[in-house]
Design a protein that fits this description.
There is one protein chain. By secondary structure, the protein is α/β, with parallel strands linked by helices. It contains 13 helices and 13 strands. The strands form three sheets. It has a six-stranded parallel beta sheet with strand order 7-6-10-11-12-13, sandwiched between helices. Helix 1 runs parallel beside helix 13 and helix 5 crosses helix 8. Bound molecules: nicotinamide-adenine-dinucleotide (NAD). Nicotinamide-adenine-dinucleotide (NAD) binds next to helix 5 and helix 8.
């Protein structure tokens, strides 16, 4: 029997589908340090972001032929090394795009109306200082008619653009590998198709009221020099990976007033210990939950089932 270890869990419906198809699915969490002792009891290992699949673990794999990352980023798996050992590595690249894009807008809508800070202050002082707080959080702005700049125009960048267009925003996108994209947007049951051509990174930096980064992790996408060229009062969103916008660079620009607010879902270290960032009154925070919706997890589960079903063991 094909045995699957879902070490970071798996959607209940996906587990049921796999079991109905005759696979055995184990969802007991094996601690990272014990994995080398147990991994050869399984043909498939599925992980989210918690379990690390590094060279030493791959080196002891003799039975495991397929590793699946339920989600997008493969930074917790030594992919090339696994491939060199004849182990297939797959991910589920599109399942969570809409959920991440909606989180970007949760941060954006909250940002332009100071919701992240007013939530904190209303809880602490809403009764005694209602009128002062009303004054402090007046003067917000609307998103309609503003320009959203996107760094990275892949799956999530494009999904974010669709929401922006629906909200009535202008979209400018930079991507070194994507020249244009046809976006299919469903409005009131009708499908509308809009083609967006990407532009230069300078144009995105200078023309945007808000900038959201959707490039893969690993390198700095927005530098201190880039910030200097942005509009004063720009809003910055990072729901991609920690470090694509350096936390110290962001903090400096928040403190100088260059950046009006930031929405951050991902951190240079996770769990983060950056208390200055966590306590900053201009920062809207979430604990890396971009893909963590019921719908995205169901789609990820379905995609895992599809991958395993066609895999030749
Ligand atoms: N917050 C979350 O929970 C969450 C969930 C899923 C994905 N993500 C992250 O979101 C990011 C985007 O995911 P995706 O599915 O859209 O990936 P994708 O591969 O579909 O798109 C990424 C795009 O970024 C472009 N790019 C690379 N370097 C760039 C740069 N310096 N400037 C501009 N563009 C650049 C690439 O050409 C590519 O088109 C990834 O970092 C991924 O790890 C986060």
């Amino acid at each position: 029997m094909i045995r699957i270890l879902a070490n970071d869990g798996i959607e209940v419906s996906a587990k049921a589908m796999l079991e109905d198809s005759g696979y055995e699915v184990v969802t007991v969490k094996i601690p990272q340090e014990d994995l080398p002792h147990y991994i050869n009891e399984f043909d498939v290992l599925t992980v989210r972001s918690a379990t690390k699949v590094r060279k030493p673990l791959i080196d002891v794999m003799t039975r495991t032929k397929l590793i699946i990352r339920g989600g997008v980023g493969l930074d917790n798996i030594d992919v090339e090394y696994a491939h060199s050992k004849g182990i297939t590595v797959k991910n589920t690249p599109r399942s969570s795009s809409l959920s991440v894009a909606e989180l970007v807008f949760a941060h954006l809508f909250g940002g332009v109306r100071f919701l992240f800070d007013s939530n904190r202050q209303m809880a602490a002082n809403g009764i005694s200082q209602f009128n002062e707080l009303k004054k402090r959080y007046s003067g917000g702005t609307e998103l309609r008619g503003k320009t959203l700049g996107l760094f990275g125009f892949g799956n999530i960048g494009q999904e974010t653009a669709k929401i922006a267009l629906g909200v009535g925003m202008n979209v400018k996108a930079f991507d070194p590998f994507v020249k244009e994209a046809e976006l299919k947007i469903s409005i009131g049951g009708r499908e509308v198709s809009i083609v967006i051509a990407t532009c230069s990174r300078e144009e995105v930096i200078q023309a945007s009221d808000f900038i959201s980064v959707h490039a893969a992790g690993g390198s700095e996408v927005l530098t201190m020099e880039d910030f200097a060229l942005m509009k004063d009062g720009v809003g910055i969103i990072n729901c991609a990976r920690g470090g694509v916008v350096k936390e110290n660079v962001l903090m400096e620009n928040l403190n100088s007033g260059k950046v009006a607010f930031a929405g951050i879902d991902v951190f240079e270290d996770e769990p983060t210990r950056n208390s200055l960032l966590l306590m900053h009154p201009k920062v809207s925070l979430s604990p890396h939950i971009g893909a963590s919706t019921n719908e995205a997890q169901e789609r990820i589960g379905q995609e895992i089932v599809d991958i395993i079903s066609v895999f030749e063991f």
